């Protein structure tokens, strides 16, 4: 599978998550306060809640339902009740286009 265009940089709002679905994979895409774009699995591993409806703070997104925060860089939960990570997908910026390949999950520590 190859990376697919999901939006332009101009369509993302800084420090807000936006939901996209690519080849049946739901992801939350975030333009953080440093200008970096992240793509993580959109479903909280604790409560099956959309993370794109959560709150972005720095390089984390917090699930609105139960308060679990996840690292946008690693997908790891930073607090309970979630204890399983969400997938993190490779993001490529090509000019103004944001490209994501849902088959490329980054293995970060």
Q: What's the layout of helices and strands?
A:
Layout: E1 4-8, E2 17-22, E3 25-31, E4 37-41, E5 55-57, E6 60-62, E7 69-71, E8 88-94, E9 97-105
Organism: Microbacterium immunditiarum
Keywords: 2Fe-2S, Dioxygenase, Iron, Iron-sulfur, Metal-binding, Oxidoreductase
Domain Rieske: 4-100
Structure description:
Keywords: 2Fe-2S, Dioxygenase, Iron, Iron-sulfur, Metal-binding, Oxidoreductase. Residues 4-100 form the Rieske domain. One of its GO terms (molecular function) is monooxygenase activity. Pfam families: Rieske. With 109 residues, the protein is mainly β. It has one domain: Rieske Iron-sulfur Protein (3-layer Sandwich), CATH 2.102.10.10. 0% of the residues lie in helices and 44% in strands. It contains no helices and nine strands. The chain has strands at residues 4-8, 17-22, 25-31, 37-41, 55-57, 60-62, 69-71, 88-94, 97-105. The strands form two sheets. The protein has a six-stranded antiparallel beta sheet with strand order 1-9-8-4-3-2, with no helix packed on it. The chain has a three-stranded antiparallel beta sheet with strand order 5-6-7, with no helix packed on it. The model has no long low-confidence stretch (mean pLDDT 94).
Would you summarize the structure shown here?
The protein is mostly beta strands and 109 residues long.
Keywords:
single chain, 109 residues, mainly beta, Rieske Iron-sulfur Protein, six-stranded antiparallel beta sheet, three-stranded antiparallel beta sheet, 9 strands, 44% strand, monooxygenase activity, 2 iron, 2 sulfur cluster binding, iron-sulfur
């Amino acid at each position: 599978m190859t990376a697919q265009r999901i939006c332009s940089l101009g369509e993302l709002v800084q420090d807000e998550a936006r939901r996209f679905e690519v080849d049946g994979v739901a992801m939350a895409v975030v333009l953080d306060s440093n200008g970096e774009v992240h793509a993580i699995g959109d479903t909280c591993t604790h409560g099956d809640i959309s993370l794109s409806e959560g709150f972005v703070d720095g390089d984390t997104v917090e699930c609105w339902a139960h308060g679990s925060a996840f690292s946008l860089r690693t997908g790891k939960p930073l607090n309970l009740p979630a204890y399983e990570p969400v997938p993190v997908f490779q993001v490529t910026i090509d000019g103004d286009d944001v490209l994501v390949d849902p088959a490329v999950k980054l293995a970060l520590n």
